[in-house]
Specification:
3-stranded mixed β-sheet, CBS-domain, 15% strand, 10 strands, 4-stranded mixed β-sheet, alpha/beta, 2 domains, globular
C-alpha cells in the first residue's frame, strides 16, 4: 500500500512511521489553511500568524491521526494481534496488522474504538475552544483548536460509514461475521459496499471537476480510487491467506534454482544474469555451498568503473530473515515477508543448505488458478 516510509518515533511500543506521500498532504494542508481557511474566518491577522496557524493545524492533524490509529493498535494488542506499527500516508493513516482479527468481537471493538477516539478528541478540543474564548486567549489558539475539533468530528462521522475498509465497514463486517459465522462471506459483502462507495466518490469527483471545482473534485476522485482499491485488495488478501494457510513453503518452491558463483565479476553478473533473467536477487554459491545472497541494489552501490574488477564476494550478504525462509514455514509467512520487504523472491534454506527458491509470481499463479476454480464451483451451485 505504501511507498518509502520513515520511522519517526516509538509510542507505547508501536513504531510511528510516515510515508513520504504524507509530506505532500502536510504541505497542501498547511498552505490551504494559511492562505484560505484561517484568513477567511479570522481576518486582519498578520500573515505570519496565518502560517503559524497553518503549521499548527497540520501538526494537530498528524497527532489526531496517530491517536486514532493508536486506539486501534492498543485494542488489537489486547486481543493478541501483532501490530507492525502505524504509518501515515497521503489518505490518512493505518495500523498495520499482521493477521486478521481472531473473532467478530475483536473486529468490532478494534473498529469502533477509532471513531470513538476521534469523537473524544473532538469533544476535548471543543471544550478547549470554549475555555480559550472565556479566558480571552489569542485568537490563533482558539482558531486552531476549533478547526481541529471540527476536523476530528468529521473524521469520526466519515469513518462510521459502513463501507470497507473504513472503520464503519469493519463494524459491518464484524456484525455479518457474527451473524453467519463466515469471515470470507462477511468480508465479501463489506468489500462490495466499500467498492460501491469508492465508485460513488469517483463519480462525484468527476462531477465536481466538470462544475469547476477541480481541486475538490480531484480529491474526491483520488479518495474514491483508494477506497475501492483497498476494499478489493483486502478481500483478495483474505482469500490468499485462506488458500495458503494449509500450504508449506516447500509446496511452492522451485528446486535447483538459478545460482551465481561468488567469483563472478559484477560486470559478468549484470550482463549474463541481471539483463538475461531480470531477477532482483540471486543466491550465491561457493564450492557448492550457499555463501549468501546478492541483489541488484548491492551492485549499484559499487561505482560502474569497478564492475569489471570486483567480484560478487565483495558485495554478497548473508541470506537473512528478509531474504530467506525455511521449507517448513507456513506459505503465508512467505507472503508476509514479501509484503513487508518488497522482495518477490526468497531463498529457501534448511540447515544452511540451499533447498530452492519461492517466488511471488508462482504463488500468485497458484492463487489465480484456485480462485478461478472456486468461482466455477460457486456458479454451478
Amino acid at each position: 500500500m505504501f511507498g518509502r516510509s520513515v520511522t519517526l518515533f516509538k509510542l507505547l511500543g508501536f513504531e510511528i512511521k510516515v510515508d513520504l506521500s504524507w509530506l505532500i498532504l502536510a504541505a497542501l494542508i498547511t498552505w490551504s489553511l494559511a492562505s484560505g481557511l484561517f484568513p477567511e474566518y479570522y481576518q486582519n491577522l498578520a500573515v505570519s500568524s496565518y502560517w503559524i496557524m497553518g503549521v499548527a493545524g497540520a501538526l494537530g492533524l498528524f497527532l489526531s491521526i496517530v491517536l486514532h490509529e493508536l486506539a486501534h493498535s492498543l485494542v488489537a494488542r489486547n486481543y493478541g494481534i501483532n501490530m507492525r506499527g502505524i504509518t501515515l500516508f497521503i489518505f490518512g493513516g493505518v495500523a498495520e496488522m499482521e493477521n486478521d482479527p481472531p473473532s467478530p468481537r475483536a473486529e468490532f471493538f478494534m473498529a469502533i474504538v477509532g471513531p470513538l477516539s476521534s469523537a473524544g478528541i473532538s469533544i476535548v478540543l471543543f471544550l478547549l475552544t470554549f475555555w480559550a474564548e472565556q479566558m480571552g486567549l489569542p485568537v490563533e489558539i482558539k482558531g486552531v483548536a476549533a478547526y481541529l475539533a471540527w476536523l476530528n468530528m468529521i473524521l469520526a462521522v466519515f469513518n462510521l460509514v459502513p463501507a470497507f475498509p473504513l472503520d464503519g465497514g469493519r463494524v459491518l463486517r464484524s456484525l455479518l461475521w457474527k451473524w453467519k459465522n463466515n469471515l470470507r462471506w462477511a468480508t465479501s459483502v463489506a468489500s462490495r459496499v466499500g467498492s460501491g462507495l469508492g465508485i460513488a466518490l469517483i463519480i462525484a469527483g468527476i462531477i465536481l471537476i466538470f462544475m469547476g471545482n477541480f481541486v475538490g473534485g480531484l480529491w474526491w476522485f483520488m479518495i474514491g480510487l483508494f477506497i475501492r482499491s483497498a476494499a478489493q485488495r483486502t478481500y483478495q488478501q483474505l482469500l490468499a491467506r485462506g488458500i495458503f494457510q494449509l500450504k508449506k513453503v516447500k509446496d511452492f518452491m522451485v528446486e535447483d534454482p538459478l545460482t551465481v558463483p561468488r567469483t563472478l565479476s559484477l560486470q559478468e553478473f549484470v550482463d549474463n544474469y541481471v539483463y538475461k533473467y531480470n531477477f532482483q536477487m540471486y543466491p550465491v554459491l561457493s564450492f557448492g555451498k550457499l555463501a549468501g545472497c546478492v541483489s541488484v541494489n548491492h551492485v549499484t552501490s559499487v561505482p560502474r568503473d569497478e564492475w569489471s574488477t570486483q567480484t560478487l564476494s565483495t558485495i554478497l550478504v548473508n541470506c537473512n530473515e528478509e531474504t530467506s525462509i525455511s521449507p517448513e514455514e507456513d506459505a503465508n509467512k512467505a507472503l508476509e515477508i514479501m509484503n513487508r520487504t518488497g522482495n518477490s523472491r526468497l531463498v529457501v534454506v534448511h540447515d544452511n543448505s540451499l533447498m530452492g527458491i519461492i517466488t511471488l509470481k508462482d504463488m500468485l499463479k497458484h492463487l489465480e488458478l484456485k480462485m478461478g476454480l472456486d468461482d466455477l464451483d460457486d456458479k454451478r451451485k
